[in-house]
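Sample 3 of the quickstart, ligand D-glutamic acid:
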Amino acid sequence: MTDPRPIGIFDSGVGGLTVASRVGEILPSEHIVYFGDTARVPYGTKSKETVTRFSVENVEFLMRHDVKLIIVACNTASSLGLEFLKRCFRVPILGVIEPGARAAARYTRTNRIGVIGTSATIASGAYEKAIAKLRSGKYIFSQSCPLFVPIVEEGWLDTRITRDIASIYLKGLRAKNIDTLILGCTHYPLLKNVIGEVMGKSVRLVDSAEEVAREARGILEASGLLNNSGRPGKQKFFVSDEPPRFIKMAKRFLRRRIKCVKADGIAR
Ligand code: DGL
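Result:
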């Protein structure tokens, strides 16, 4: 049995391409429809009501492409809107918080876990709640790093300024002797080198993008929804504003050139 319908992925903008890229690696035959809400990015500074409303519209857009599974690549939308989305739609919807939390709980030896993310993700306590559900006795320390998103979008992945900012943000977490750090934002995997250097070798970094891609494979396998064609899947990219800017930044995230189309009827 094979199911040729695409997987839908949405994010507030370009950052979710870290997730699309991992899904492409782990599920190479799956078609992907990606939507980046570039007209309304950032989500990380907005309220739960606003992010949830945007997320519902994003899912409605993906549903028009007959998707078989949706991945909410955005950590902020996963933190604030996932529960509501799951209640509203019948298609399976996966967020990035639980897979990331599960991986961190598995990796830690000292039970001391750090989480970094946007202001909204950290304020929501979503990672703390997800980890608490898994195993008790974990100490979780969190820190918002709002400047990391514009730094990545500017392409300053490995500069002195980036290192200085990372040192300031992560100073408190370093003092907590954590052994595992969740990169709780779509953009942060691109700063893995700098974050790794600042935190030191003894701290394992958890990339939620990789974890959610594995989880998606598990769900498709278990429910008989895999695409078994053996041919490489096609990827389509849509945004709510400014395709040229998205295409430019996508090169940094995917290390290749893509085509991208402005989505109709969303974020007007
Ligand atoms: N995609 C967002 C996240 O993972 C980061 C960018 C934004 O604030 O919208 O939380």
